[in-house]
Every structure is written in C-alpha cells, then in structure tokens.
Design a protein that fits this description.
The complex is a heterotetramer, with two copies of chain A (about 325 residues) and two copies of chain B (about 350 residues). Chain A has ten helices and eight strands. Chain A has about 325 residues and is α/β, with parallel strands linked by helices. Chain A has a single domain, classed as Thiamin diphosphate (ThDP)-binding fold, Pyr/PP domains (Rossmann fold, 3-Layer(aba) Sandwich). In chain A, the strands form two sheets. Chain A has a six-stranded parallel sheet with strand order 2-1-3-4-8-7, with helices on both faces. In chain A, strands 5-6 form a two-stranded antiparallel sheet. In chain A, strand 3, helix 6 and strand 4 form a beta-alpha-beta unit. The longest helix of chain A has 27 residues. Chain B is of the alpha/beta class and about 350 residues long. Chain B folds into two domains: about 190 residues, 3-Layer(aba) Sandwich (Rossmann fold); about 130 residues, Rossmann fold, CATH 3.40.50.920. Helices cover about 35% and strands about 20% of the residues of chain B. Chain B contains twelve helices and 14 strands. The chains are: A alpha/beta (about 325), B alpha/beta (about 350). Chains in contact: A-B, A-C, A-D, B-C, B-D, C-D. Chains B and C meet through helix 4, helix 6 and helix 10 of B and helix 4, helix 6 and helix 10 of C. The structure holds thiamine diphosphate (2 copies) and magnesium ion (MG) (2 copies). One thiamine diphosphate sits at the interface of chains D and C.
C-alpha cells in the first residue's frame, strides 16, 4: 500500500466512527419500539436505512475531497455524510427530530442537507444523480475547481435518472464521479432479478466514459479508484462511473426480517466484515497496532456519543415551526 | 350479494385476499411491482401471492417505475389485467407520464376502441415520521386528471370489495390504501383497521360513498384513514351533544356528489377532513359541490381540516401538528356549531 | 418604478426581454432546455438569447427532462440562477419528481439553509388542436403541491415584470405562459397579446392579483388566456347591462385570497373561469376562498366555466366545445344574474 | 438481393403510398393556413410531423410482420402506421378530425390507435417504449407467438424510458425489437449535442442484447436486419436494438423554418432521397421497370386520394361527443 499513512489512519478512524454511529442509531431506534415493533414509536420513528458494511465505499474518497466538493447520496446516507465531514451533532439531532438538527427536524434521516460540507441526500431512488450533474455545471461555470460525487445503489442503476444523468455529464464533460454502491440487493430484489448485465460499470460504454469495477469491499481499493476518477474530473476530463461491490450487513431498513437473504449469505457477509478486515490488515502491515486501534475506537466512540448526547439534550421544535421554511 | 360473517381481517389481508381470489378465477390477472413477490409487498398488499401463483404471475421488478407501469399499460391493452404497484404514491413523479398521459387517456384517444383494464395500487399517508417524500396522500392530484378512477378504502370490507371491482373494471383504477389503515403489526395500532370480511368474493361499487355514521348537526366528508379519525371525533362530539354524520367517499373519481349534497341538505353544516394538501384539492372540490348543490341549506361557511400547504415534516411534534387529527376535527366542529 | 411607455411588445418578446435583461446584470443566470438555443424556444421565450450570451449560458439540452431539470436544482443550490424550460407543461410526467419532490422541498428539508433560486418556464394551454398531450394547463396540479411559486402572466407587461421577479426570487418559481396569449405570428391572432412594455427593467410582485376590469354585478376570477376571453365577454355583457369585474390572479401560489374576497364582497356573485380541468383544481379553491371569506355576501352559488374532466380532444369542434369560451362565460354570467 | 420479389415490390409500393400520403397531408395542411400561417386554422389544425424520407425504416419490417404483432410509434407515426397496414381511410379521417376516424376525432395525428393491426403512437417522447415491453409480456404470457416493435427517434434515446425499457425487455427476455430512427436531429438539436456516443446501437451492450447499426437509409438493409431481429424475438431469444440512419426530408413539423439545418445538408438529403434511390435500384436490378413503377404510383396515389376523399366526406363529430369515451 503506497498510500500515505495519514490517509490510511483517517480512513480507519472514519470507518470506526461510521460503524459506531450506525450501531448506536440502531440501538436507540429499537430501544422503545420493542417488543411489539411500532415504526411510529420511540426516539427515532420512521424508516431507518443503515449502511453498516458499506463504509469502504464512503471513506475511500475522503482523502481526495476538496472543500466545496458536492456530494449527493441516497436514502442510506449516513456513511457518506460522515465521511464527507457533515457535522455529526447536527446530523444526529436531525435524526432525532430536534430543533438543532441540520434541517431543524424537517427533513429527517433521508433528507440531510449541509452547506459546508456540501452534502445532500434524498428518499427517492436516483433523485440525487441529476443534482450532482447540476452542481458540476455550476462548478464549471463558476470556475471553482470543485467536483461532484453522486452515490446510488445498484438498484438505482435501472432508473431512468441514471441514464439521463450519465449522458448529460458525459456530453458536457462535467466533473462528476458516479459511484454505484452494489450491495447486491434492492430491498428484497437481488441484482440478477433487476439488472440485465452483471456489472453496471460496463454501462459506462453507453456514454463513452471510463467504467471501473471495484470487486472488493475494501477502502484501499476504493481509495485508488476514486482518487483516479476524482483527479480526472478535477482535471476537466469528464465523468467516470465506478461500481463497488459492498455489503449491507443489516436489513434494508431496521425491522426488516431480511428473510429474502439466505443464512449462508448473511454469514459470509459477516465473516468478511470490512471494518474487521481493514483493521487486521493495518496491523499486519504495521500501520496501526491493535492498541492504536483500540485508542481510535475509544476516541471515535466518544465522538459519536457526544453527538447523540447533543441530540438528546436538544429541544424538539415547536409544532407550529412546521410552517416555516416553505419559502425563503 | 354477501353473507354475514364473523370472520375479521385487517385491511391488508383483505386486499391480498381480494387479489388472490381474482387471480384464481381469471388467468389474465397478474401482479407486478417492486418487492411484491418474495417480500409480499412492503405493506403486505400482495402477501402470499407468489407462493400461490408463482413468479410468472407475481413479478418482482427493477426500480423502473416508468418502465413497468408503462408495461402494465401495454399488457392491459393486449389481453391482460395487470395489477401494478407503485410502492409509495410519493414516487409518482418518476412515472407520472405513463399514468396520467397514457394509461388514463388511451381509451379516449382511441375513441373507445381500446380498453386499459389496469389496477394501479399504491400506499398513501403519513403519521409515522417517514418525512416529506414518503407520507403524502396526493389523491386530489390524481382526481384532478381525467381518465383514472380513484378509490381509497377505509375498511377491510371495502378494501376487498373495491379491489375486486377495480380488477374487473375495464378502466384504469388507481387503488390507494392508507398505510395507517391497513392494520399492519408494525404500524400504529388502529382498532378500526380490522373488520368483518366475507370469505367469498364480492364487489363494492366504485363511485358510491358510504355513510360511515349517521348524524344530524354537521356533515363530515372525508376518506381513508381520516374516516377513522372522524369516527373517533364523532364519539367525543356525541358526548358534547353534537351529532356528526360522516361520509366516507370511498372513491374520488367518480365522486358521489349526490351523497355530499344530500347529507349537507340534512345537517346544514359541512366539514371536510383531508389528509392531502389543503389548497387546490379535494377539500375545495367537496365544498364547491356542497355550495352549488345545497346553497340555501348552509347555515355556516364550510370548513376544512387538511394538511396545510407545506411539505410533511419529519419530526414527530411537527408532523403531528401538520396532519389532520381527532383534536383538530373536534375543535373545528365545535367552533362551527357554536359559531 | 416604471415609466409610461408607448412601446408595444407581444408577450413572447416581453418574456425574452425580461430574461435578457437579467442575464445582462447577473452572470449567475443561465438558460437551459430543449431547443432554447438555436431555435430560440419553440414558443420564442428565449429568442435572441443564444446570440447575445453564447452557448455556455444558453444551453440546448437532450430530451432528458429529469436530467436537466434535476441539474437545474443542483446548479441553483450551487450558486447559479437557472431558468429551465419544460417545453410543454404536459410533459411534466417524465420529470415531476425533480420538480415537486426536490426543487420544491429542499429549502424546507434543509430547515431554510439551502435556497433553490430556479425558474421553471413552461408553455400551457390549448385552442389550436394540439390534442390531449399538448394542450393542458395543469396549473391547479402544481398549485396543489407545496414549495413552488406558480405564476401565469396574461399581459406583456406582467410577463416581463413577473419574469424578472421570478429570476430574482430565492425560491423555485414555475412560470407558465399560455401559448395563445404570447402573440406568436403563427398562433391564433390575439389582440390582447400585445401591450405596452417599458424598456427598462421592472418587477411585478408575485402573489398579487390584478383587477383587469372593474365592475359591480359579478366577479370573474381567472388567469392566463381566459383573462382575455373574460374581457371580451365583459364587453358583450356590458351591452346587456351587466357589469363584470375581472380578477386576473397572475399567480396561483401565493394566491391573493384578499383580492378574491374583496371583489366578491362588492359584487355578490362569482364566476371562476379556468382552462384547467374542472374538478379538484383552481375553480374549487377560488370558490372555497370566496365562500369562506364572503359567505354572507353571496347572492347566488358560485359558478365555474372550466375544461370538463375529459382529456382535451383533437378535433376542432370537440376542442372548441371543451375549452372555456367567450360564449360560455357570457351564458354563465347571464344565467347567474338573472337567476 | 436474395429477397423474394414480392417483398421488394411490396416495400416499394408501401414507400410510394407513404410518400404520397405525406405529400397530400402537407398540401392540405398548408392549403388554408397561408399566406399568414396560423397553426389553428384549416382542415388540419395543430402540429403536423411528417416522415417523408424515413420510409425505409417503416417498410423494412413489413414483410416480417405477423397478424397481431404490436407496434408503438412516435409523434411522427404515419409511415409506420401505413407500413403496418392501419386502415388508411380511418387514419386520414382521424387526421382531419372526423367522426369516422380511428379515434372519432379525439386523438388526432399523434394519437392514432388501431386494434387490428395492433398499432399505437404517442405525443410524448419515449412513452411507447414501455408499452411495447408490456405488449411483449402479454404475448409471452398468452403464448400468442407475437412480437412487439417499438419505434423511437435518436433524440428519444436520451430519455429515461429508453433505459428502463431496454433493461426490462432484456432482463425478461421479451420478444421486442427496439428501432431507433436516427434522423440526426431532435427538432433543432443535432445528435452530437444530445448523445454522448456516436451510435445508439452501441448502447445495447448496457443490456446484454444485440445492437445493430444500419448505416444506410435503404429498405433492403432494413429488411435484412429487421428480419433477423424479429425472428430472434419470435424464437424467444429476446430483444434487439436496431439503429437506422435515416433522413427527415422536411421540417420537424410543418411550418418549421428549418433554419438549423444548412442548405448543404438539406440538398444532400434530397439527392439521396430513398424513394428515388430504391426505384432506380429496382429498375437496375430488373425487379420493376419504370413503367411498372409508374403503374404502382398510379394505384397508390388513387388509394391515398380515396382515403382523403373518405375523410373529407365524413362528418365532424358532434361537439358534445367530447364527453364520450373517458371511461369504458
Ligand atoms: C423512485 C423510487 N422507487 C422506489 C423506492 C423505494 N425504495 C427505497 S430504497 C429501495 C431499494 C434501493 O436499492 P438500491 O438502489 O440498491 O440501494 P440500497 O437500498 O441497496 O442501498 C427502494 C426500491 C424509492 N424510494 N424511490
Ligand atoms: C417528454 C417529451 N419531451 C419533449 C417533447 C417535445 N418534442 C417533440 S418531438 C421532439 C424531438 C424528438 O426527436 P427524435 O426523438 O429524434 O424524433 P424525430 O422528431 O426526429 O422523429 C421533442 C423534443 C415531447 N413531445 N415529449
Ligand atoms: Mg442495493
Ligand atoms: Mg430525430
């Protein structure tokens, strides 16, 4: 790995932070919903899509980001938001529906928006892809030197917005990187039942742009491929399409019985947990000892806990505040 | 003709049963949509169908709503009777052309030569903090556009009967079920969501409202989950000596204007409860119907309790304040009758 | 502040001039859409802009409405002020998600932190036999959904001023121009389509209705091309001794409810003329506004002349019968005042 | 050309019929709209998209069609409708808005629907593509042995519906042939300004299906390629994507000043007029003499004239008939 150690450590720290955040959200999500699960109840009501297992997809681009770069993410946004550095306190507060949240409680977990860093996500499949194209248009017109990253699932790659966005970005040679998080399932529908070809990265040829497959759920592989694609975009050479094979360790949303995936599939997934694997490798390669990793854990856990404490200590918005912010 | 029954079902099971029974008798009926097969539908509307009828007739689709809803149109005009699910009505924006410009208009454009017997099922409604892109009802929007019938059951009995009517209808029918009225184990517990449902096949006519409760002092016109809220409100109002009549529209297109007018002529007062956005929608249409049909009978200006013209917010206190509630209904009626 | 002017322009030229003037002063303004460049817009709304501002700021797009309207959202939240054209409003179905769920809601979701200053221009209306997928107005549908301002100019003066207001507005504004009101050489000749337009830049406030004609016997509330039809009808009615007041709403969102109520309080009668589909739309909303705001003033039930709930037919006699007309307005008012 | 003579003659006759129909519609369209062109005036008001020059795209599939095969066409539908054998009298009557029309005057030129033959078209770009997929699903489910053809312009290939339709058809191995009529322009926008790669047929690889480019506007080439694709679909081997380079000889719609295409471009197009070229070739190869071609012309002109006479002699629908047929 001829990657600066600082980058490796940063990616590891971020993975730990993401995983811990997802674990804590999961615990608190269920805390007051069980034993008789009621989606409307508790500190965090509503749907909750967690990304445990998909950390490599998010952290690999992190060292290559510049301030002002735009990211559009999906209904499963936490890992990407955290990797970009979205304020964790405000993000947690939003998820808990508090006044101090990114959107003062109006958006919730699928609608996290941040100005600095420049982040957005959405509950509609494919919706963020054209937005990334437009962000790139703005960067080009304004000469900011920024690029846009657009995350989407392998299920989203069959939505019309995918096609239109890639064509526009390629046609106008815009600084965008499209990143397909291939976790093999769209809710219960496996990729083979939704996608006519094995690899979405091969669809890049329909737009005359580079398509790269990252076949392993590994932050280093992602780091390298994303680095090249982001450089290319920043240089003005146009968009790329990256597909990364990754794993959604948990259900589609919390409360999903996940009966559509076999026990074997789930077991295999847990065995290859990317956080565990990356930690081991960093020990092996002498980048971070077990003790150092434990220290990182402690620090990151504290960061996450502080964010959750901040959220829980924050007030709910006043009910009539619902009327604010429809128009500027 | 339906027999009396002691059997109770949730609305969700009643929907799935209605589909299953039509699939049994009509081989041209098939189901497609996201997660309708192995998963049984995110809201269970297609539960058990894959096991019964196999993957040729219960088809899990990619996330390609324009593609598969348009395919339902093509299948419907070529001898099939598709039931196609749009998982949440909120997603209509990615496929609306196929719905309103194609499915809804081909019969007209063809001068009546081509029929499009498709059922478009979709989940509507909020109340569980799913935020602004997963909580809308939008029925006013679909009812505004010509060529689609629009039904919204509020009870298990109606759900099954309207589903069977919808499948047999030679027109495209949009079948909107409210998540909160389905009786799902994992959704807000709702005692009104379970009710008697005959085992045999039966129909409920599309275009006929139902008097969900008789009353004399005020007419409450509503649909979907708000029928339940209105019933709860009426019970409270009864204690205050106010007798509310509740009209469950059951279908927005065709709209049973006679039922609205007849009730307002009787009670002289009208409240419309609408979980859809307040302006330019159902509430204004119902009020206009009443004003035009019962102008001289109205003792007070009609009132509405609806979702204000704001995106549906996520946070629990915000959402609770935003959606129609029993409290808001009681308060509105109380003010109207005392005003 | 605007100066008096003798210069007359068509509405089409007034729109293009408004855009051109804002592009001159604000480098963040750019235009994109199908055929907006070389062609100058199918209805001329972007005429001359490519020559003036070049292909970087006047961008012909592929037929990818979801893609480029979504791109307008991304550009708007990243420092630009896009004007994006949806060639005909009828095409909204292929891109509605980007409009109503994204452009319209990001400001809200972000708790006010992010602004989306985009203008979405679109051509509306029928009357020239373009049939059911190219003749709709659909403004009621857009006005039903929160987060978008919706403006509909009927005069050249308003067209320019509203365009400049829309561009400067920090919110998404849907700017709907009626093809028949543009004064296009190749479209039905319409004398009302040309009017005085100051050369300098000026704004017309969004959300304020305009009294297009003062009167005492009946209020006609309308918008777009129907304002012209109402004016022609009012001239005929005047000859019959009926004095009609005409309210040109100019914007549906925000809706100037005060103007509606004030006029009805004065005339005691209301006719709504709406080229959009009759049910679940603008006509019901205006009537509800009047009934709630002027209940005790109304001498007769409000009436509407709208497009019935049918797809707009192609054949000339069918279409003529379907759309609101001077004759239908005159007949409706005559019946109301004599009834 | 090892094509049965009957097929060649049939294709030529059909091309003549199509061209004549388009010419006559054009004449009658302008007849009472000029000198001051008013789109709302005259015997045929409204937009009018004519397909003169694109006949090869339509007639090439004709000899391979079976009864019951479905076709979905575009806003520029006449050539395809005529080639499929849609009743010319009723079609003309519809275009003239008469009661005897295919849709009793409700649909008009962009909304021609016929049950037998199984034809439909639409005013919305890409709208017919998913419909063809659904028709093919029905044929497969019902075991009719039929196939569906979906026509669309090269401009439409950048619409999301294209992507979703091809993916579904490929995934489900449906009997559909997708035919891209590449006339190089979408209204005023040239292909190079709208499409990120030169040939849409190359986009077939994004769906794992055959993609074939027909580089010349020639009925024989189309015949061969379409024959193979239609056979393949009928055999159950799934969909194909065919792109045919063709020419729109006139404006996008009648009344279009067509200033966006150079004089040279237009001249070249007229020089290579496919009807003229095919006629010459049939003479050269001894298939049809000039005299025989003249006889065909006479016959086809009479057929077209009879259709127009039928239309003009038909009554307009009663105004209130507008209310019929909203619901069955
Ligand atoms: C347009 C639209 N269709 C359907 C849905 C419902 N839905 C939410 S997540 C999801 C699956 C997405 O799969 P994928 O893109 O692979 O992302 P993943 O959930 O695996 O991260 C679906 C179908 C939606 N939100 N939007
Ligand atoms: C969704 C949609 N967008 C835009 C239009 C307007 N429009 C009609 S025809 C056309 C150009 C189509 O180009 P192409 O697909 O190449 O077909 P051609 O006209 O060349 O036959 C456009 C943009 C439309 N009808 N529908
Ligand atoms: Mg996935
Ligand atoms: Mg073309």
């Amino acid at each position: 790995m001829d990657i600066p150690k600082a980058h490796l450590v940063d990616m590891y720290e971020t993975m730990v932070r993401i995983r811990r955040f997802e674990e804590r959200i999961r615990e608190l999500y269920f805390a007051d919903k069980l034993p008789a699960f009621d989606i409307a109840a508790g500190l965090i009501p509503g749907e909750m899509h967690l990304a445990a297992g998909q950390e490599p997809v998010a952290v690999g681009m992190r060292p290559h980001l510049h301030p002002g770069d735009a990211i559009t993410a999906t209904h499963r946004p936490h890992h990407v938001a955290i990797a970009q550095g979205v304020d964790l306190n405000k993000m947690a507060a939003e998820i808990f529906g508090r006044e101090t949240g990114l959107g003062q409680g109006k958006g919730g977990h699928m609608h996290l928006f941040s100005v600095e860093p420049n982040f957005g996500c959405s509950g509609i499949i494919g919706e963020g892809m054209p937005v990334a194209v437009g962000a790139a248009m703005a960067f080009k017109a304004r000469g900011t030197g920024n690029i846009a990253l657009s995350y989407f699932g392998e299920g989203a790659a069959n939505q019309g917005a995918f096609h239109e966005s890639l064509n526009l970005a390629a046609l106008w040679k815009l600084p965008v990187v499209f990143i397909c998080e291939d976790n093999a399932y769209a809710i219960s529908v496996p990729k083979a039942s939704s996608t006519a070809i094995p690899d979405n990265s091969d669809r890049a040829s329909a737009y005359g742009i580079p398509g790269v497959l990252v076949p392993e759920n590994d932050p280093v592989a992602v780091y390298e491929v994303m680095g090249a694609a982001m450089d290319r975009a920043r240089r003005g050479d146009g968009p790329s399409l990256i597909e990364i094979k990754t794993d959604r360790l948990w259900g589609h949303f919390e409360g999903d019985a996940d009966a559509y995936r076999s026990d074997e599939f789930k077991e295999d997934m847990n065995v290859r947990d990317p956080l565990v694997a990356f930690g081991k490798r960093l020990v092996e390669e002498g980048v971070l000892s077990e003790a150092e990793q434990a220290a990182i854990k402690e620090k990151e856990y504290a960061t996450v806990e502080a964010a959750i404490d901040f959220a829980l200590a924050s007030p709910y918005p006043a009910p009539e505040a619902a009327l604010n912010h429809v128009f500027a | 003709m339906t027999t009396m029954t002691d059997r109770k079902l949730t609305m969700q099971k009643a929907i799935a049963e209605g589909i299953a029974q039509e699939m049994a008798v009509d081989p041209s009926v098939f189901v497609m949509g996201e997660d309708v097969g192995v998963y049984g539908g995110i809201f269970g509307a297609t539960e058990g169908l894959l096991d019964k009828y196999g993957p040729e007739r219960v088809i899990d689709t990619p996330i390609s709503e324009t593609g598969f809803i348009g395919a339902a149109v093509g299948a419907a005009i070529n001898g099939m009777r598709p039931i196609v699910e749009l998982m949440f009505v909120d997603f209509f924006g990615v496929c609306m052309d196929q719905i309103y410009n194609n499915m809804a208009k081909i019969h007209y454009f063809s001068g009546g030569n081509i029929k499009v017997p498709a059922v478009l099922t979709t989940a509507v409604g909020g109340g569980y903090s799913d935020a602004g892109q997963h909580s809308q009802t939008l029925w006013g929007l679909f009812a505004h556009l010509p060529g689609l019938k629009v039904v919204v059951p509020s009870s298990a009995y109606d759900a099954k009967g309207l589903m069977i009517s919808a499948i047999r209808d030679d027109n495209p029918v949009m079948y909107m079920f409210h998540k909160g009225a389905l009786g799902l184990g994992w959704m807000v517990n709702n005692p009104h969501a379970t009710g008697p449902v005959p085992e045999e096949s039966y129909t409920v006519p599309i275009g006929k409202a139902r008097v969900a409760r008789e009353g004399t002092d005020v007419t409450i016109v509503t649909v979907g989950l708000s029928v339940h809220k209105a019933l709860d409100a009426a019970a409270l109002l009864e204690a205050d000596g106010v007798s509310a009549e509740i009209i469950d529209l059951r279908s927005l297109v065709p709209l049973d204007r006679e039922a609205i007018v007849a009730s307002v002529q009787k009670t002289h007062r009208l409240l419309v409860v609408d979980e859809d956005y307040q302006s330019f929608g159902m509430s204004g249409e119902v009020i206009t119907t009443a004003v035009q049909g019962a102008f001289d009978y109205l003792d007070a200006p009609p009132v509405r309790v609806a979702t204000p013209d704001i995106p549906i917010p996520y946070s629990h206190p915000l959402e609770t304040w935003t959606l129609p509630s029993v409290d808001r209904i009681v308060a509105a009626v109380t003010e109207m009758v005392s005003g």
